[in-house]
Each structure stands twice: as C-alpha cells, then as structure tokens.
Design a protein that fits this description.
single chain, 4-stranded mixed beta sheet, globular
Length: 212
C-alpha cells in the first residue's frame, strides 16, 4: 500500500519525507501532489487527520492516485500529534471523541465548551503547528513540565517523553533512553493545546520500540 519513493512519510516536525519505513497510521491534508507524484504544497486544508490503515471494507487506492488525497504515513500516534494531526472522526470515531473531550477540557472555559466545534479546534491547531511559508511552530518549555506523549527537539533530534524516559525518534522507531536535565528548556514540537490535552489525561499510542 505504500512506496518508499513517495514523499509521504511524516516526521515530528510535520515534514513530508521519502523513506521506506512503513507507517502504523495514515494521514490526510488534502491533495498535495501533482501529476508526477511530486509534493507541491504542504497542506490543502486545515483538517489534518490520522486514519487507520484498514477500516471495514474500504479499499484504499494506490497512494498519490490522480484526483485523490495524498496518503501520508506516521510511525505512531505520538508522531502524528507532534506533526499537528488528530484522529479522524470517521474511521477512529471513539479515539476522536476521547481526544476532543480531553482537548476541550484542557483548553476551553467550561461555560463555552459546548460551542466548540472540530472546525474551531482545527483552526487553532493550524496556528499552533504551521507558520507562514510552512515552517514548524515550536514553543519553549521546561522538560519537567511536559506530560507523557509530547515530542520535543534537542540538538536537531526529536525526542518522545515516554513512561520510561526521553527516547530519540527515527522513522524506524525509538532509540535507547537518554538522560537529560529535567530543568532544561527545550523546543516543544507537539502543539501547545495538544500538550494541554495530554496533561488532562489523553495519552497517544506509541510505536512498540517505545516500550522495549
């Protein structure tokens, strides 16, 4: 279903890369490729979602088929969230609702939470993940303040805050735990409002190497 020659693997910075590693989740930002399967735009809409590789009897088309959205792939949900994606309301309905509930609880005043739609959330997420021109939005925070599931950047490497410590990211999974000063300030890749949702009980799913 995937091809290593396509620029459709997503890293924690939200960049679209050509890499042969297979993803555990698929993603959608709209039609991003041209007739020669080259990426010509970083996104086509603001509803960046993650989808299951297989769902019911749906037949997935060949990635980057003409007129079809550009299929993107992630090694796990934590990477997808760091890149700025969130669970699809169709193929991941239960996961989507759990995330939305945690996000609203963490980021919206109780008196106004009923009025928040996914369109509102997607609009805010877009401002938190992508700057003009496509650059990745980051924010600084102390390591000790980051909940499990967050990804951050340190010396040009992305790291996951996991239950067993700070793990370096790659397209093939996570490396060995490293020791870091908990008081250190790092550049956080996961959008700020998603970090808040994680702090309020929502924990993303990890690649199996995170539990090794």
């Amino acid at each position: 279903m995937t091809s290593g020659t396509l620029q459709n693997r997503v890293d924690p910075w939200g960049r679209l890369c050509a890499n042969p590693a297979r993803g555990a989740l698929m993603g959608n930002r709209g039609i991003l490729h041209d007739d020669e399967n080259r990426i010509v735009r970083p996104w086509a809409h603001k509803a960046w979602v993650t989808c299951l590789l297989e769902f019911k009897s749906i037949k997935r088309s060949k990635p980057f088929s003409p007129g079809n959205y550009s299929e993107l792939f992630f090694i796990d949900e934590a990477t997808a969230f760091a890149a700025g994606h969130r669970p699809c309301a169709y193929c991941q309905r239960e996961r989507h609702l759990k995330f939305k509930q945690a996000w609203v609880r963490a980021n919206v005043a109780e008196k106004t939470d009923a009025a928040i739609s996914m369109t509102d959330i997607d609009r805010l997420l877009h401002a938190e993940r992508a700057a003009k021109g496509g650059a990745k939005v980051r924010f600084d925070a102390a390591l000790s303040s980051l909940p499990v599931g967050v990804m951050f950047e340190h010396q040009d490497t992305a790291y996951l805050v996991s239950p067993r410590g700070f793990l370096p990211w790659s397209f093939n999974g996570y490396g060995e735990r490293i020791d870091m000063d908990a008081d250190a300030t790092v550049a956080v890749l996961t959008p700020r409002s998603v970090v808040q949702a994680f702090a309020h009980g929502f924990e993303p799913k990890f690649h199996s190497s995170a539990n090794a």
